[in-house]
Design goal:
Elements (H helix, E strand, L loop, with lengths): L11 E5 L7 H10 L4 E5 L6 H4 L1 H16 L1
Parallel strand pairs: 1-2
């Protein structure tokens, strides 16, 4: 949910904590640039989240989309 608004966030940023390209700091910057975006940093993952942490990524995306539909 958007902070203080009671409504779901429109945008989400997902990155790996060990990503040398999209570092956690860069992911935070991207998230801040989107306004009320949700940031998730997956542990034990670098840049290929769909391969490295497929189950965790799918779980987050499913929950994120479900929250948006409410």
């Amino acid at each position: 949910r958007s902070p203080g608004s009671g409504r779901p966030t429109r945008d989400g940023v997902v990155a790996g904590r060990e990503d040398p390209s999209t570092t956690p700091a860069l992911a935070e910057e991207i998230c801040a640039g989107l306004g009320e975006a949700e940031l998730v940093l997956l542990p034990r993952a670098a840049h290929m989240l769909a391969v490295e942490r497929a189950e965790a990524l799918a779980g987050y995306l499913g929950a994120f989309l479900e929250r948006r539909e409410r």
